[in-house]
UniProtKB/TrEMBL annotation:
Protein name: Leucine-rich repeat receptor-like protein kinase
UniProt keyword Repeat, yes or no: yes
Keyword terms of this UniProt record: Cell membrane, Glycoprotein, Kinase, Leucine-rich repeat, Membrane, Receptor, Repeat, Signal, Transferase, Transmembrane, Transmembrane helix
InterPro entries in the cross-refs: Leu-rich_rpt (IPR001611), Leu-rich_rpt_typical-subtyp (IPR003591), LRR_dom_sf (IPR032675), LRR_N_plant-typ (IPR013210), LRR_R13L4/SHOC2-like (IPR055414), RLP23-like (IPR046956)
Domain of life: Eukaryota
GO molecular function annotation: kinase activity
Family in the record: Belongs to the RLP family.
Residue ranges occupied by any Disease resistance R13L4/SHOC-2-like LRR domain in the UniProt entry: 311-497
SMART domains on file: LRR_TYP
Predominant location category: membrane
Location(s) in or outside the cell: Cell membrane
Residues in Leucine-rich repeat-containing N-terminal plant-type domain copies: 30-67
Membrane topology, as annotated: Single-pass type I membrane protein
């Protein structure tokens, strides 16, 4: 007999079920608890993040979550809660990182849906294949987990997976080994049929032929991020576009080489975010981009795209970000107005057009982009003044106009109206006039201000207290007045402060050191600021770049923070000694420059413990004793590049361990009292480009192994030592050698004929700066070159030193003739052979050395006539032929007639102007005069032919250089970035180049002296 159950039984049954469910949910399934315990045993957990994994209820353990209904573990979140610091941590050493072994006991969590192991460090171990067997996974995040190797194709079995994150791009400042994910064949991705979000940034694809097709087979895919994947190529077309839900596609930084932007992209109408930046897409931006009506973000920066911006882009009413930086638009900015007349005019929030070749002035239509929050127009060829229409951009937060040619004054009306402005960069322009309180008073949200490298003066009332709180202030090369600016006193949030070359002549106020205690980078160099540094500088724990050079700071050196990477205190008045434990107290140093002070004592051996150091500059101090013999202790991975301890009171020999510095490029030990022979241990310094051992007491011979050991050598200075023997003939095989100074030694023998083969001296030098840059600060090479009867110092900050070709063998015991082969050195600027025992005639080939500025052959035993070919040396501004046995008439024409009598003194056989002795038959020897006239005419003809031959080269060279700067805006940026602060010295380069084009002697002499 069938009957319906009584309602009371139904109620009791329901209560029993609920009670049973409650019982299950209140605890933890034992098998899953055991699986978690075993999984924990394989982990390294120094920070004790899993200390709560005790007791029977695993559902209450840290990072574990269970289903309220079934009690099964469904979530395991072991993501590192403390991300790596980009400034202080390397991923393996983050104390919160877990790592070691991923045990297969995870398979015991059969209902696991969520697994996050990101931001840990598993030592480069591969992703275990068993991960592909956790069938119920919906979420898998292994990003930056220190895993590496091939991504197992078994992950393609996770048909329920909706979110996969394998992002593995290295950290910015991480210097250790970063494990790398790789995928041989991406076809398995098509098996992830439920996938919606995919991030494989940094994963390297070995074969990408099926990548796009595999992604196209995912029916639910919404987000694809494949940045920095080395994809290299993608198909230009697809037979069928299945991306019906795709809203985000990021293929940036993937080296994709494509003749055009693939057409199928413009059929993905659901796209909201498209990032193709930093690839090699060519062609133009097609008009079909207007089909992407849902687009919010379009990023095409850093490609090879050319041409304008299609006006159809202006019809995308949702477009908020347009990033086209570093592509070649090369249009007048006003011409783009027709693009920004549609509905984009009210939707656009971010416009990035830096380094796109834009020219002309800033048009008024910019003021109509009323929703604009960021505007990037730096690195173009924009001229004129800032329009008042900019003041209508009341929502603008970022304005970057640096590296242009904007001129005129900055209108307070337009700038003062940008009340939302957070970031303002007007640097590297030609702006002039005054910045006053009216410009900045309303900018209460300003945190970044860069006005550097203009002709601006900042003038505020002494009591002005700005309402903004800056994090970065860059006013280098602006005029701040002689008094230290008091208006920055309330900028307590400042992290980056640059006030170099600002005209300050004042004592440092005490409040300044309190203000900058949290600063990261501080540059107040090239002023006239005086005072002592605070004794407790070690408490400035945030600073990692400190540049106080070229001021009047005095007193002893304080102890600095362990975090300092760049310390430049050069050209001040510091005294005392260096901390003998500097290697332990400042282990992070990359650049140490203490040159040009009054420091004394020993050079501390703990310098060799600076494992990251690339430059040590202790020149022009009072250090004494011997050089420490400890350099072998420096890490091979971070070897020293520059070592300059010149102009001190050092004695003893060159330590053998310096030869272990295999990365050393510049070695300056000049102007000390070092002795002994040039050590053979320098064999190990195979990268040397500059070797300067001059003005010491070195003995022995010039080693013949220099040519084999230093193939990159460009400058060799051994002058003023006690070196003897012959000059090695093989020196000329160093093709880059352009300054050779062996003067004032005891060298004997003949000048090698092979010296006419110096390749770098045969042509005019090519511009090249010897600047080594570290963390924003730099070591700039400087060198004294003896020419024109004195020592000229060349600062290579704008490349002048690289233009100099010089050969100095003076003050030795050389004999024999001057080799005619030296005439091949047509790029040589200075030749000094004085103070030797050279005989014979001056070879006529000297007249072929067309770049000679300085020629000194004095104090030898030269005889015969001065060759008439020397009249061809139209650049010659210094000549000394005194104290020889020269005879005959002094040739006339060009420079030779401009030198005074002292140039030729000590040669009793010479006659004619400018010496007093009159040549025979000067009054009645018409034939002689005619011959001279003919000779002068010949010289003149040669000079004019030289002019005519040079003029076309000048025109072509001029337009190759300036035309390239006009067309290549990124080259122009680099060029003007180093000349903006050194305009006067740039003038010297222009002068040298100009004079090489054979302009008049007088103009050349005025500039080069």
């Amino acid at each position: 007999m069938n009957s319906k159950p009584s309602p009371i039984y139904a109620i009791l049954l329901l209560a029993l079920l609920c009670n049973g469910a409650s019982t299950v949910a209140s605890g933890c399934i034992e098998s899953e608890r055991n699986a978690l315990v075993d999984f924990k045993r394989g982990l390294r957990d120094h920070a004790g993040r899993l200390s709560s994994w005790t007791g029977s209820d695993c559902c209450n353990w840290q990072g574990v979550a269970c289903s309220n209904r079934t009690g099964h573990v469904v979530r395991l979140d072991l993501r590192n809660p403390h991300p790596f610091s980009t400034y202080t941590d390397d991923p393996p050493y983050n104390k919160w990182s877990m790592g070691d072994e991923l045990r297969p006991s995870l398979l015991g969590l059969k209902n696991l849906r969520y697994l996050d192991l990101s931001m840990n460090y598993f030592g480069g171990r591969p992703i275990p294949e068993f991960v592909g067997s956790i069938r119920n996974l919906r979420y898998l995040n292994l990003s930056r987990a220190g895993l590496g190797g091939p991504v197992p194709r078994q992950i393609g079995n996770l048909s329920s997976l909706q979110y996969l994150d394998l992002y593995n791009v290295p950290y910015y400042r991480f210097s250790g080994h970063v494990p790398e994910f790789s995928i041989d064949d991406p076809l398995w991705i098509s098996g992830l049929s439920s996938l919606q979000h995919l991030d494989m940034g940094g994963v390297k694809f070995r074969d990408t032929s099926s990548l796009v097709e595999s992604l196209n087979m995912l029916p639910h895919i919404v987000e694809v991020r494949l940045s920095q994947c080395g994809i290299q190529s993608i198909p230009l077309s697809l037979p069928h576009v299945n991306f019906t839900r795709l809203s985000t596609l990021d293929l940036s930084y993937s080296w994709i080489d494509s003749p055009t932007i693939p057409s199928w992209l413009f059929n993905v109408s659901s796209l909201v975010h498209l990032d193709l930046s930093s690839n090699w897409f060519r062609g133009s931006i097609p008009a079909e981009v207007g089909n992407l009506s849902s687009l919010n973000v379009l990023a095409l920066s850093d490609n090879l795209i050319q041409g304008g911006i299609p006006k159809e882009l202006g019809n995308i009413c949702n477009l908020q970000t347009l990033s086209l930086m570093n592509i070649n638009i090369s249009r007048s900015l006003p011409e783009l107005g027709d693009v920004f007349t549609g509905c984009i005019k009210t939707s656009l929030e971010n416009l990035e057009l830096s380094r796109t070749g834009l020219r002309s002035y800033l048009p008024d239509w910019l003021g109509e982009l009323t929703s604009l929050k960021t505007l990037f127009l730096s690195g173009n060829s924009l001229v004129g003044s800032l329009p008042e229409s900019l003041g209508r951009l009341t929502s603008l937060q970022v304005l970057q106009l640096s590296y242009n040619e904007l001129n005129g004054t900055v209108p307070a009306e337009s700038l003062g109206g940008l009340v939302e402005l957070d970031y303002l960069d007007l640097s590297k322009n030609l702006l002039e006039g005054t910045i006053s309180e009216a410009h900045l008073a309303n900018l209460t949200k300003l945190s970044y201000l860069d006005l550097s490298s203009n002709h601006l003066a900042l003038k505020f009332s002494p009591n002005w207290v700005p309402l903004f709180r800056l994090q970065m202030l860059h006013v280098s090369s602006c005029s701040l007045g002689k008094k230290f600016p008091s208006w920055i006193r309330n900028q307590a949030s400042i992290s980056y402060l640059f006030m170099a070359n600002a005209g300050i002549v004042d004592a440092m106020p005490d409040w300044f050191w309190v203000l900058v205690v949290q600063v990261r980078r501080l540059d107040i160099s090239e002023n006239a600021i005086s005072g002592r540094l605070p004794i407790n500088f070690s408490s400035f724990v945030s600073v990692w770049d400190l540049d106080l050079r070229s001021n009047y700071f005095y007193g002893s050196l304080p102890k600095f923070s362990r975090n300092v990477e760049v310390l430049d205190l050069s050209n001040n008045l510091f005294s005392g000694t260096i901390d003998p434990a500097i290697g332990e107290s400042m282990p992070s140093l990359i650049l140490l420059s203490l040159s040009g002070n009054k420091l004394h004592g020993d050079v501390p051996s703990s310098l060799c413990q600076l494992q990251n150091v690339a430059t040590i500059d202790l020149a022009r101090n009072l250090f004494s004793g011997e050089l420490p013999n400890c350099w072998r202790h420096l890490s091979q991975e971070y070897d020293l590049i520059v070592l300059d301890i010149s102009s001190n009171n050092l004695s003893g020999g060159v330590p053998d361990t310096i030869g272990s510095l295999s990365s050393l490029e510049v070695l300056h030990l000049s102007n000390n009292s070092l002795s002994g022979e040039i050590p053979s241990s320098l064999h190990g310094c195979t990268r040397l480009t500059i070797l300067d051992l001059s003005q010491n007491k070195f003995t022995g011979k010039i080693p013949k192994w220099i040519m084999e050991t230093f193939p990159s050598l460009r400058i060799l200075r051994l002058r003023s030592n006690m070196l003897a023997g012959r000059i090695p003939r093989n020196l000329s095989r160093l093709f880059g050698l352009h300054i050779v100074d062996l003067a004032h030694n005891n060298l004997a023998g003949k000048i090698p004929k092979s010296f006419g083969k110096f390749a770098a001296m045969k042509v005019s030098r090519v511009y090249s700066r010897s600047v080594f840059t570290f963390s924003g600060s730099s070591y700039v090479e400087s060198l004294e070159v003896v020419m024109k009867g004195g020592a000229l110092k060349y600062d290579d900050s704008i490349g002048i030193l690289s233009l100099v070709n010089a050969l100095d063998l003076s003050g030795n015991n050389l004999y024999g003739i001057i080799p005619p082969e030296l005439g091949r050195l047509r790029g040589l600027m200075s030749l000094n052979l004085s103070g030797n025992h050279l005989n014979g005639e001056i070879p006529k080939e000297v007249g072929s050395m067309q770049s000679l500025v300085s020629l000194d052959l004095s104090r030898n035993e030269l005889s015969g006539a001065i060759p008439s070919t020397m009249a061809y040396l139209t650049f010659l501004s210094y000549l000394d032929l005194s104290s020889n046995n020269l005879s005959g008439r002094i040739p006339s024409g060009n420079q030779l007639q401009t030198f005074n009598e002292s140039t030729y003194s000590g040669n009793p056989g010479l006659c004619g102007f400018p010496v007093k002795q009159i040549c025979e038959n000067d009054d009645n020897g018409a034939g002689t005069r005619n011959n001279n006239t003919s000779e002068e005419d010949g010289a003149g003809s040669q000079v004019w032919l030289s002019y005519l031959g040079t003029a076309p080269g000048f025109v072509v060279g001029f337009w190759i250089f300036w035309g390239t700067l006009i067309l290549k805006s990124n080259w122009k940026d680099a060029y003007f970035s180093y000349i903006d602060r050194q305009y006067d010295r740039f003038y010297v380069i222009v002068a040298i180049t100009f004079n090489r084009c054979k302009n008049s002697y007088v103009e050349y002499q005025n500039i080069c002296l």
